[in-house]
Amino acid sequence: MAANAMERLDLALEASNEGIWDWDFESGTLDFTERVGEFFGCAKEDVPNFFEDESFVHEEDRAHFFNAIAAVRAGKSEILASEPRVLCRGVEDNWKWFRVRGVPVMYEGKLTGLAGSLIDISLRKRAEQALLEEQHLTQTLVENVPLQIYFKDKKSRFTMVNTPMARWIGCESPRDVVGKSDADFFDEEHWQQALADEQRILETGEALESVIEKETWSGRGDTWVLTTKMPYRNRRGQLKGTFGVSSDVTELVRTQRSLAEMAAELKARNEAYEEEMALAREIQQGLLPTDYPSFGSAKFGHRYLPISGLAGDFFEVLDLGEDTVGLLICDVMGHGVRSALVASLLRGLVSQVKGLGSSPGAFLNALNGGLVGFLQKAGVTMFATAFYVVIDREKGKIRYGSAGHPAGIMSNEDGASLMPLGGRGKGAGLGLLPDAEYGEESIPLEGVKNILLFTDGIYEVENSDGEAFLQNRLVQTVKRARRMPLEEQLDTILAEVKSFTEGGGFDDDVCLLGMSL
Q1: What is the pLDDT of residues 152-180, one digit of tens each?
Q2: Average pLDDT of every residue of the chain
Q3: At what angle do helices 250-258 and 263-285 cross, to 10 degrees?
Q4: Entry pTM
Q5: Do 404 and 426 contact (CB within 8 A), yes or no?
Q6: Residues near 139 by beta carbon (within 8 Å), at least 6 away in sequence
Q7: Rounded (5°) CA angle 438-357-394
Q8: What is the helix (H) or strand (E) element at residue 366, kind and residue range?
């Protein structure tokens, strides 16, 4: 039975992927199982004695690890528990994280050694480090937006605010606001109305957008803010409360009420604040267009497949007049929270520079300038690629430009091909170079039947052999589908790419924007 028990123990340890160590103080020996040797990329006899030689333990982890050992040896702790990084010269990545657990070995009331287990937790630790970095970048962006941002629970108590919001209501730190409500800061006239608005949002699910609120304070003059409030749901779709974004418009309101002759200036400044609010809404929502402009008999369609809840791909169809329309597709580096926030910022910039939309070069220049300015202020290094196309029926031309993005595909009765890029070619990505200049190309509109813009997630997929789909296959797919109705074209393209992956799916966000002339 004992042998069977030991066999079962060995099987359990093998299944758990844990290694065992035994440190005998009297003999000075430290024994490891074969699994430990596998972790270190060597024979178990060659595993370094990192329990005594501190040079094998990362300098940031030494104090905790050796203090934990000393505490057990001194009888101050009944268990050794630490997660140090240890030097493993026999593996590609020299430093590995280990979860080390151990207990005292006693003989006749005397501590004779320690024994325990260890397991490689490097993957988890690296994932934790990446998550912390992403959270830091997100917080940097939120703290640098010149707006008051706040989240509340279902009882309208603050659960999170940014620093501008905390200072607006007279607190030194956001921590001083959490758990409190508007009633702790404002007079009844304002907090009762705010509470009613938020309860209505929770009941109906409808947002309160771009409303000027009068804030009444005790011992402080009235102020006005331009506010948008929306329902807040967690990633599972459960309603958790509300969130809002506000900007100070007190001076504007006072000017409007006191000086009628300044009405024009007041309108311009209000519009500026409206643009800021639009940017804040895009950062929080990242909503895609739902309606296309009317452009003769042309039809528009899109397919949008984010691989996570938040994505950096987006598109816009710009109404530039009766005979002109603009198609924009954008891909922010990476995916997740960081790229979604930058994508939201870019969508706000698009609305600001739409007046330049008839010129691809000027339009991309303006987007780049706006993005560079914001990222430099926030101290964040990010970039986005973009491809922009202008269809001008009056002049019979298609003009386009690229900011580091693959060219679109055009098709006609004879076939399909990538839109040619000469001159400056793809150009630099948006947000990288403050002085970047973007050119544009021009081709005749006559004969072109379809235009397809796409992000790299559609063609960088691989099959089971590691072979990428690539743009050439995408062009051939478009060629075969060019005579289908637009919606059927888009579905056919996705179906062929998915078939190529043999069920592997997409590794990156996918965005398709199509136009049928």
Answers
A1: 999 999 999 999 999 998 999 999 999 99
A2: 87
A3: 150
A4: 0.47
A5: yes
A6: none
A7: 110
A8: helix 360-378
